[in-house]
């Protein structure tokens, strides 16, 4: 059950407010000081805070600022008497959700609280449907996703190698946003026929071109009020890039062959495994569109960069495979777990998912064996340290540094590059 924490130095008012919430089906606890509130928050899961503005020798703003520093992100309301409204308004400017004039025991306030708790529950449920990473890079990515998801006005560009789960991240952003109840529409731009890409995205009117025998709504219309995810956005033609840029800037678009503008109420999330800045210099991608898409870039790490996640992620995928295949495989035996951790996973999460599903299907007993998993032998050292794939360069450089005990001269030799080139790449990938 959701928990509301009441911070109020008047014991009678605190108890009265808590009892009122409990009678209305909401779990509520109260404390009488900022220090007590800090202790409670550190030891309990809290979904919403109701804090008085004046608290003996402290105030609710001090608690709010402490919570922000500690990373607490639940709704925070200031309860205030008439004379403290200016201070409460200032608290809202500093990050409080809103202020509530005393007494707060009204149907209106109850409706506000229930609405926020329902929204918070939906977001928690959405988080539980996704694997939550444990490795440092995965934890950092999850933290950033939680911050950017509610920022509806920002376009997000997800960067990462093929198979790293960019669409998975895009779905998380949608599920944790204010548009979670609206459609999430994913478009593989690499699979769009160039001559029909504009029609697929924006729709067309009857007679717009040969074969347009009736009106058609496009992906923008399908994603109305929701999120449109454009995977491999670098594959769009320059003409379609221009139309996309206009739709994002003007928040309107025109179906192919149409005369009337249609409102574009979508949140755009794009993804690519291509170096778009190089594509700009080569004249294949519009610089103005790049900056519009790149308002908030996210880097999805390679699976090899997140070794702590390989086994938990494999188990998560095994649960999914069991449901899909109607099997009841319990897990991986000891030797298979070793093989899973030792294998470099050049195909990233996509490769892991396929390998687990195939092994679950082949498993004859309760536990998947290395024979069921049938992973290739480790890549040869020369292949592991070759910088022949720009998308995997960062991981390859990290491997070389680890193998040489951070001896940069030796690492450069292992990578087959000069020390000056290595230093440039260290700077490029923020490893210096």
UniProtKB/TrEMBL annotation:
Highest taxon listed in the record's lineage: Bacteria
Domain Sigma-54 factor interaction: 131-361
Keyword Cell cycle: no
Domain Response regulatory as annotated: residue spans: 3-117
UniProt keyword list: ATP-binding, Nucleotide-binding, Phosphoprotein, Transcription, Transcription regulation
Keyword Cytoplasm: no
CDD domains for the chain: AAA (cd00009)
Residues with 4-aspartylphosphate modification: 52
InterPro entries assigned: AAA+_ATPase (IPR003593), AAA_lid_NorR (IPR058031), CheY-like_superfamily (IPR011006), Homeodomain-like_sf (IPR009057), HTH_Fis (IPR002197), P-loop_NTPase (IPR027417), Sig_transdc_resp-reg_receiver (IPR001789), Sigma_54_int (IPR002078)
PANTHER family, A to Z: TRANSCRIPTIONAL REGULATORY PROTEIN, TRANSCRIPTIONAL REGULATORY PROTEIN RTCR
Protein name in UniProt: Sigma-54 dependent transcriptional regulator
Taxonomic lineage: Bacteria, Pseudomonadati, Bacteroidota, Bacteroidia, Bacteroidales
